[in-house]
Amino acid sequence: MEFGMFHEFQRRPGQTEAQAFAESFQQVDEAEAAGLDVMWLAELHTAPERSVLAAPLSIASSIATRTKRMKIGIAVQVLPLCHPLRIAEEASTVDHISHGRLIFGVGRSGFPRTYQAYGISYAESRERFAEVLEILKRAWTQETFSFHGQFYNFDNICLVPKPYQAPYPELRIAVNSPDTFQQSGEAGLPIFVATRLGDLNELVPNLRVYREAWAAAGHPGNGKVYLRVPVYIAETEQQAREEPHESVMHFYKYLGERIEASAVMEGARAIENRAERGQRLQTIDYEDVLKSKIVVGTPAMVTDRLAILRETLGLSGILAEMNCGMRIPHERVTNSLRLMCSEVMPHLRD
Q1: What is the arithmetic mean of pLDDT over 209-238?
Q2: Which of 80, 104, 141, 243 could be cross-linked to 169 through a Cys-Cys bond (beta carbons 3.0 to 4.6 Å apart)?
Q3: Least confident residue range of 221-235, 270-284, 316-330
Q4: How does strand 153-157 pair with strand 145-148?
């Protein structure tokens, strides 16, 4: 089982941007020293109260030069916001700098607000995503390529550099809606799943759709699934429950407000029940969060919980959100991280 840390380069209340970068890079160094498998980087824009991680490939390049062993993942690059040639060049460059340690996660993002800031229609996000992904594959694998689509047209382009990994860095795709589980299975792509909008129980039928589509398309194996989930570990059960409480509840209220607001934005689909889900998150009870959305406890408790999730969902790995809500102090985040690496990981290795 692969263990990663999902990092947003949080900006805690009262921090300057410089302090947020410095503290986050300290956590990266701690993860490398502790033996973590992957450091996963989010992509967040126009959220100064939350994060300074707007340029994940730039951060990935820095991590590549300060680490030797740990892989560096993007979770996720929001492809519809990218110029495909520029992002292909930058990802290939990071792949070289890291000597092939890049994992390139891609997605569309569930929030129209960023699309509005970039002047791109969220209603076009699916079509833009498909075009950019296809262009990336051609740019990375063909000496010269051409492409003619709805949004991009290229003739006889030679991208330099080609990726360090052949044919290109591993791709993983973030999925949420039922149709994207189907499409990702048909395409034979590993997937990220999460519990922010729903809960762990909702994943089971969607993963069945993914794996049935995977098998029907004739892909070998069973499809790889990686769960992004808040994790907090402490020496006692009481500490593990109480220490992240304020931060976690702040996060779900914050997230719920933004999901509800996004329901009326251009391109948001009514079938996703955004407004209802957003309202529910703003009033969710902490006990319900503990049961269905996060993993907290002593090392032994977390090991047992993850073992059950691995069996139930068929997980290949996790992306542990170690500071859900941005308000957990740095020292507690690093302690939780060390406990995960030293006392949980060894028991869940394949």
Answers
A1: 97
A2: 104
A3: 270-284
A4: antiparallel
Q: Which of 101, 105, 18 is nearest to 64 (CA)?
A: 101
Say how far apart CA 226 and CA 295 lie, in whole Å.
15
In contact, 267 and 112? CB cutoff 8 Å:
yes
Angle at which helices 203-216 and 299-313 pack, to 10 degrees?
50
Of 162, 243, 210, residue with least CA distance to 314: 210
Instruction: With 0.85 as the threshold, say if the pTM is over it.
Output: yes
Tokens for 95, please give them. 């792949």
What is the per-residue pLDDT for 269?
Answer: 58
List helix spans (H) across the chain: 17-34, 56-66, 84-97, 112-118, 125-141, 178-187, 203-216, 237-242, 245-262, 274-282, 286-292, 299-313, 330-339
Q: Which two tokens stand for residue 50?
A: 């939350």
All domains of the chain in start order, with CATH: 2-239+293-347 (3.20.20.30), 245-292 (no CATH)
Beta-carbon contacts of 305 under 8 Å, excluding residues fewer than 6 positions away, are 295, 297
